[in-house]
Amino acid sequence: MHIEPFSLCVNNRNLRKSFFPACEWIRIACSIVLTVAALSCNSSSPREPSRRAGEGSSVSILSANRLYREFNDNPIDATAKYQGKTVALEGLVGQIIRLEHGEAAVHLADDGNRIAIATFPRQDDLRGVHAGDKIQLQCAFDKYEFKTVWLSFCTLAPPQNIGPEPAIGASNVPSANLLYREYVANAKAASAKHDGTIVEMEARLGDLIQLSSGGVAIHIADGGKRNALVATFPDASAVAGIEQGELFRLRCRVEKFEYFTIWLVRALKLADSSHPLRMFLATAATLKRKAG
């Protein structure tokens, strides 16, 4: 029996008695496929929020880990990005080591592995902080060496200032060394920003030189440079009682950056209580005594 190809789709009563025409099967198949596709789309939409929630959970990834990955993936570009900068980040405390001169080093960990070492100039800043704690901090980037990010002159930072990514923060000159590194990284920009201004900062007393005027000049070291900053005090008694290597606070005017040295004039020693954390602790202790 010979059947023309188009006869399968014509109105043939004999064929419809035995089976559906092929074109009907095609229509049914297409309908099934479209129905399944529609159900798949509808069933996947309730799961969409959970997928996005999973993506949003990446916010909880500590920014110290991301900073480390930046250096691990491309240390040259990462160093160029953070050199001379202050960075704000969040990290998990792996270990706290007490150092000389009242400093402390915090090892930041990721899955038990050390990824960064953050040095705090004051051990008191870490009072109440223990291994396993999550902390927010602001530090100066030093270097990337031995598969570790080295950070210095760290302070604890308010949590609201820390995001999921390591952030380059505006320098508020918390230390003389950060001021010096700002000039070394970009002397022109730093001079435009700081020359002629009054700054308050922390420094460690270095060499002390008596002046014929009755004043005194002190050297503040950074790395291997002993006279990275030179601060002149009109009154020599202003630094009396401060031992070499001791951390203290001063107010002074930035005069210039010359011969890779920052020259500071009209320096005045500030009381230790001007340190924000110490002021907070002192206030808390006073309120506690009054409440008791």
Describe it for me?
By secondary structure, this protein is an alpha+beta fold. Among the domains are: 111 residues, OB fold (Dihydrolipoamide Acetyltransferase, E2P), CATH 2.40.50; 79 residues, OB fold (Dihydrolipoamide Acetyltransferase, E2P) (Beta Barrel). It is built from eight helices and twelve strands. α4 packs across α5 and α6 crosses α7. It is globular, with a radius of gyration of 33 Å.
**Tell me, what is the CATH class of the domain at 60-170?**
Mainly Beta
CATH architecture of the domain at 60-170: Beta Barrel
**How are helices and strands ordered from N to C?**
HHHHHEEEEEEHHEEEEEEH
Helix content: 25-40%
Give the overall form: globular
The count of DSSP E runs of length 2 or more, i.e. the number of strands, is 12
Rg, rounded, reads 33 Å
Short description, anyone?
The chain is α+β, with helices and mostly antiparallel strands. It has helices at residues 13-18, 22-44, 47-56, 63-73, 75-82, 176-185, 187-194, 276-291; strands spanning 86-98, 104-110, 113-120, 134-145, 148-156, 167-169, 198-204, 208-210, 216-222, 225-233, 247-258, 261-270. A six-stranded mixed β-sheet has the order 7-11-12-10-9-8. It has a five-stranded mixed beta barrel with strand order 1-2-3-5-4.
Task: Furnish the topology, listing elements before pairings.
Blueprint: H1 13-18, H2 22-44, H3 47-56, H4 63-73, H5 75-82, E1 86-98, E2 104-110, E3 113-120, E4 134-145, E5 148-156, E6 167-169, H6 176-185, H7 187-194, E7 198-204, E8 208-210, E9 216-222, E10 225-233, E11 247-258, E12 261-270, H8 276-291
